[in-house]
Predict the structure.
Amino acid sequence: MKKILLIFGLLIVASTIAIAVFKSQKQKIEQEARLEPRELHVEFRENGRVYPRNRLAITPQFPGRIEEILVEEGDAIRKGQIIVWMSSRERASLIDAAMAISEKEHQRWQNIYKPAPIVASMDGFIIARNKEPGQIVSSSDTILAMADDLIVFADIDETDLSRIEIGLKLRMYLDAYPAERFEGVVEHIYHESTSVNNVTVYTIRIKPLEKPKVFRAGMSVIITITAESKKDAMSIPSIFVTEKEQAKTVTIKTGTAKKPIFEIREVTTGITDGKFTEIVSGLNASETVVILSQKPKAKSKAEK
């Protein structure tokens, strides 16, 4: 009799534990979604920098003294325009000596011995003013620097180079002015590679289609490149897709509202922008995918 009671007691304990385990494994739906058509873009970002297309250093043809600089940074310049007046060392010495004698003598020699002009050799604008009137300079000193145009250069990892082509339109914004967004077009891909931090890269040259007013040489630029895009891609949020051992699966809800059944099914995916993933096969538009979570573990009577 005692043996029968012991077996009966064990059965009760076992059934209590089984109920507790079942309750602990009961799942609830946290999120659910269905396939929807979306326009997806595969994008990657690169860092670039603003540089002059052609930079020209303005240097004197002879050593001497700067008498007058007629331009400021940012000024537009025409080819042949006088931008600096220079005195040779001899003229500077003679003019200073005449000034020491009298203003009349100074004016007389100013009219006799004229300063020499420095003219711009191309159309463009001033990007740097390194000297000021009164300074003595040698023929190797840069008084001004000018550029004909400002463009963007970027180094592209060789693994991404296949996604770049001449004429490709890019979206960009300035690090210093994130709100200043603008577009550009790839106008040249350099054929010789360089190594940056042990990574092989190729430099591309990008022409801005419309330059921001705050555009300055040396500015850092963030470049967004669209590698692939697709309209009306039937997709779901990427958080519903699970990847394990190179297989991608989703959890599908079937059954009824009161008695749902959950099925794990393998799917084939297509383009993804990180936030949403295209489902090529394995899921129908009428089916619902879910994210499940475990309910808090229920305590059995034995644990209370």
